[in-house]
Specification:
Organism: Lingula anatina (Brachiopod)
Biased composition (Acidic residues): 265-275
Family: Belongs to the OSBP family.
Largest sheet: 13 strands, antiparallel
Strand content: 15-25%
Catalytic activity: a 1,2-diacyl-sn-glycero-3-phospho-(1D-myo-inositol 4-phosphate)(out) + a 1,2-diacyl-sn-glycero-3-phospho-L-serine(in) = a 1,2-diacyl-sn-glycero-3-phospho-(1D-myo-inositol 4-phosphate)(in) + a 1,2-diacyl-sn-glycero-3-phospho-L-serine(out)
Shape: elongated
Number of helices: 17
Biased composition (Basic and acidic residues): 276-287
Number of strands: 27
Length: 701
């Protein structure tokens, strides 16, 4: 009977770290068993167990949630939720250890433990009395048949019934004695290893007939009971189960006592231990449904970049030597900027192109200007912001985009759904071949050390723009990598003279040595200085125990208000719900059903030498063809060229000149944002309409 059960984390190894398991402490057997989930416990699919007889519990004074159990020359490490839960488990474990260790030793000192030979002697003695009683009953039966006196026959018959009842009781007693003897043999097997020949012979006697001196009268009963006894742990069942145990640690029935504590060395992908009702089809994590992508009729399809890579990265354990070499270069907390990551984990696109996916829903972005009320504009800014991250991840498997080369650029634009196209080209804009009713985007790698990417987007027809930059700072965190996105972006809504300043969350690559997956974490904000509206947003990392992935929570505040006018929660790559202070609620963003608007990029043959898709095309081509060696070769050529150019600039005392962005204080800004160009246009027209201005302008020119 289980005295305690519930979730704990068990340390597996350096590769897999702490793993979440469902534990069951059985005080009667003195076993601490664990399973991958509560459902697997119900099925009896045990992953491992710890024998508590003679075990020693250890605790760490500096950590109030962890403890160890040392037994069978092994040390098992466990972690509870908190100190209170640890004490509950330790209390139960200590009681079980005392019950199966100390009392038994004291009992051996004060009481005689019968040997199997003594058991055999008692069984033989009982069987002799049984045989004598059977013989006497047969004699009584013959006498009854020969008796002519009805009264005497009735008395003899009463004696016969009592004798037959006694015979059945003695038969049952012999069976119980045999079962007790088997339990002693089983206990000896647990304590001392495989049975010695005398014990093995004694244990095997339950399956014999006249060889052990048991009379034929009991044979039928033993055979009848034998099936049940084998199911209850007799030699037949024991030998079968121990054979199964030796072949597979995966499915040991809980009633079978293992010879030693054991732990599965090949932990399968584990499940949330608190989930009870999960169907067999849910044993594997569900794959994300593909999101609808809308492309324009005149769009150019690039087979290297526009075809989404459906191949999962799988387990990195197959790349053990590479990963081991990589880990030998790093330590926890180390900046990974100068570490060269293996090519096979790369995603087939540049980081600059990934930043463009912030605008995968361009209609939400340009729709900010359509709201007349500053509160509604702030809500729409938050709506777009929360929709901006999911499209950057093409699958649940975490892959790393290319580190941009200094001077590398990426340009693209989007058609806006339900917006009439314009023939007017915005030749003075960031992307000169884009029309006024398109959302244009340009990004540039403006620094290599530290790695800083600057990007700018605008819709000149709607008079809205975004100017931003991100310094990606990566750190090794042990079993994961943290990518801190340091920087900000400023949304300018020109018709309302508003600026919205927003920051970015941290990205985490989890389980980097098994199947990597990405999550976002950290607190960010959106603020509008003019209106006073602001939003606090928290991307929540998955808790160590339970909880869900990809959770986000946001609260939008009016100026000088302490209570939010709107709260939002849900999954940043799924569905988010909003609750307003008026009592109204709505589905705020649904990234699963919202179609992604495909960005439009010029063919590589028409791109400049340092535009991302053309720059990385050889690496991308060989990655697509799964030729990792060739991809690595071309990647090294690009990186080596960058080093040589940097060395040459250093020797000549030259500073790198950016193309589209400049540094202003701690920030990076686009050279000619929409506001600046509009101001220049107004100034130029003003001068043209002023005679005095014209003469001054002409003389100046």
């Amino acid at each position: 009977m289980a005295t305690i059960e519930g979730p704990l984390s068990k340390w597996t190894n350096v590769m897999k770290g702490w793993q979440y398991r469902w534990f069951v402490l059985d005080e009667n057997t003195g076993l601490l068993s664990y399973y991958t989930s509560k459902e697997k416990m119900m099925r009896g699919s045990r992953r491992g167990c710890v024998r508590l007889k003679g075990a020693i519990i250890g605790i760490d004074d500096e950590d109030d949630s962890t403890f160890t159990i040392t037994v069978d020359q092994k040390t098992f490490h466990f972690q509870a939720r908190d100190a209170e839960e640890r004490e509950r488990w330790i209390g139960g474990l200590e009681e079980a250890i005392l019950r199966h260790t100390q009392p038994l030793s004291k009992q051996r000192e004060s009481k005689h433990i019968p040997s199997t030979a003594e058991f055999d002697s008692k069984v033989a003695e009982t069987d002799a009395y049984l045989q004598l009683l059977i013989d006497q009953t047969k004699a009584l039966d013959e006498k009854i048949e020969q008796c002519d006196d009805p009264a005497a026959r009735e008395k003899y018959s009463v004696i016969k019934v009592a004798a037959e009842t006694m015979i059945e009781s003695i038969k049952q007693s012999i069976v119980l004695l045999q079962m007790s003897k088997q339990q002693i043999a089983d206990q000896a097997m647990v304590e001392n290893g495989p049975l010695t020949p005398p014990l093995q012979a004694a244990a095997g006697s339950i399956g014999r007939k006249k060889e052990n001196g048991i009379s034929p009268a009991v044979d039928a009963l033993l055979e009848e009971e034998g099936g049940d006894m084998e199911q209850d742990g007799s030699v037949g069942a024991q030998s079968h189960m121990m054979s199964a145990y030796s072949n597979s640690d995966m499915h040991v029935p809980p009633r079978v006592m293992p010879m030693t504590s054991y732990s599965s060395s090949e932990d399968e992908e584990f499940y949330d231990a608190e989930e009870l009702e999960r169907s067999a089809t849910e044993d594997e994590p569900p794959k994300a449904e593909p999101v609808q992508v809308i492309a324009s009729k005149d769009d150019y399809f690039d087979e290297l970049y526009d075809e989404v890579d459906q191949e999962d990265l799988g387990s990195l354990e197959g790349q053990g030597s590479i990963v081991t070499h990589l880990l030998s270069q790093v330590r926890i907390g180390m900046d990974l900027t100068k570490i060269v990551l293996p090519t096979f984990i790369l995603e087939r696109r540049s980081l600059l192109e990934m930043f463009a996916d912030f605008f995968a829903h361009p209609d939400l972005f340009v729709g900010i200007v359509d709201f007349k009320d500053p509160k509604e504009r702030m809500i729409q800014v938050v709506r777009w912001y929360l929709s901006a991250f999911h499209a950057g991840r093409r699958s649940d498997i975490a892959k790393k985009p290319y580190n941009p080369i200094i001077g590398e650029t990426f340009q693209c634009f989007w058609d806006i759904p339900n917006m009439e196209p314009s023939d007017e080209v915005s030749d003075s804009g960031p992307v000169p071949w884009v029309h006024k009713n398109n959302l244009a985007f340009i990004a540039e790698q403006v620094s290599h050390h530290p790695p800083i990417s600057a990007f700018y987007a605008e819709h000149s027809g709607k008079r809205i723009s975004l100017d931003g930059y991100i310094w990606t700072k990566s750190k090794f965190l042990g079993l994961s990598i943290g990518v801190y996105m340091i920087g900000q972006a400023v949304i300018s809504v020109l018709d309302h003279d508003e600026e919205y300043v927003l920051t970015f969350p941290t990205g985490y690559g989890r389980s980097i040595l098994t199947v990597p997956w990405i999550e976002l974490g950290g607190k960010v904000g959106v603020q509008c200085a003019k209106t006073g509206y602001y939003a606090n947003i928290e991307f929540k990392t998955k808790p160590f125990y339970g909880g869900k992935k990809h959770q986000v929570a946001a609260a939008i505040f009016a100026p000088n208000d302490k209570k939010p006018i709107c709260t939002i929660d849900g999954e940043w790559n799924g569905v988010m719900w909003a609750q307003y202070n008026t009592g109204r609620s709505e589905k705020f963003v649904d990234t699963k059903s919202m179609p992604i608007i495909k960005k439009k990029v010029k063919p590589r043959t028409e791109q400049g030498e340092f535009e991302s898709r053309r720059l990385w095309q050889d690496v991308t081509k060989h990655l697509k063809e799964k030729n990792v060696d060739k991809a690595t070769e071309f990647k090294r050529k690009l990186e080596q060229r960058q080093r040589e150019e940097a060395k040459e600039r250093l020797e000549k005392g030259l500073k790198w000149e950016t193309k589209h962005f400049h540094e202003q204080g701690e920030h990076w800004l686009h050279h000619r944002p929409l506001l600046k160009r509009l101001q220049e246009t107004v100034t130029r027209k003003s001068r043209q309409n002023s005679p005095e201005g014209d003469s001054e302008y002409d003389s100046a020119s």
